[in-house]
Design goal:
Blueprint lengths: L2 H9 L3 H4 L4 E9 L2 H4 L8 E7 L5 E4 L7 E4 L3 E5 L5 E6 L16 H17 L10 E10 L2 E9 L10 E6 L5 E8 L5 E13 L2 E11 L13 E10 L1
Antiparallel strand pairs: 1-2, 1-13, 2-3, 4-5, 5-6, 7-8, 8-9, 9-10, 10-11, 11-12, 12-13
Length: 239
């Protein structure tokens, strides 16, 4: 882990504190235009999300009316019923998005993959910067919301399943993340600007409770409409 990652991780509570835990769980409320666009309106409006901190694993429970829960494990996605039986599953689910654009509809397993992959990445940020093979470097300054932020370019290795291998993190003067940028590869490389705010401290770790994702222009600025995804977290627990 280089000094850039170290400074950001320290601002969020430090790696030693983070590694005391193996899971993050939160009540999740979601909105935004994406879900209807993908033909999955309402499925994950209100649920509980759990992610592992020591491996790639995430679950949404319930998964709407379709399953008791989903399980994302990087190269496999599953839907599970009340008896614990796998009712649907897909190996190497990323390949199922080949040729997709932003307007392409998703089936239930594709929704589960995207949601699991996204929330694993979000809730493990910035501590994922300490994972083997994750690279980051300074990319200058960015002024927004009356602050000057550091822009950090991040490259994820092939061993991690993320929906965009190249991303950017913006951190404020307090080293807390303010924004994430990525081009969603599984949706036609659609560019997004993802803002995080309303931090709370849980077991010594700083975690944002509010996330808002908007379209991103070629010059790096975002536009206020449409709101692509909204995420609000509460009852956050680290175990």
């Amino acid at each position: 882990m280089n000094s850039i990652a170290q400074s950001i991780i320290d601002g969020h509570g430090g790696l030693a504190q983070w590694r005391k835990f193996t899971k993050v769980q939160a009540d999740l409320v979601q909105g935004g235009a994406l879900w209807a666009l993908k033909g999955q309106s309402g499925v994950l409006d209100r649920t509980t999300v759990t992610v592992a901190t020591d491996r790639q694993w995430a679950s949404h429970a319930p998964f709407g009316t379709l399953a008791v829960k989903s399980e994302f494990a990087g190269d496999r996605i599953s839907l599970i019923d009340l008896a614990g039986k796998v009712t649907q599953s897909l190996e190497k689910p990323r390949g199922s998005f080949d040729g997709h654009t932003l307007e392409t509809s998703w089936d239930a397993l594709q929704l589960a993959f995207f949601a699991g992959c996204a929330m694993w990445t979000y809730l493990n940020t910035p501590f994922v910067l300490a994972w083997d093979g994750v690279e980051c470097q300074e990319a200058g300054e960015w002024t927004e919301q009356g602050e000057t932020w550091r822009k950090i370019l991040v490259r994820y290795p092939a061993s991690l399943e993320v929906f965009s291998k190249a991303q950017a993190i913006y951190v404020g003067p307090d080293n807390l993340v303010r924004r994430l940028d990525y081009d969603v590869e599984i949706a036609g490389n659609t560019p997004g600007a993802h803002y995080v705010s309303d931090y709370t401290t849980v077991s010594g770790i700083r975690i944002p409770t509010r996330r808002r994702i908007y379209p991103r222009l070629p010059d790096g600025h975002s536009v206020a409409q449409p709101l692509v995804v909204s995420i609000d977290l509460s009852a956050i627990a680290l175990t």
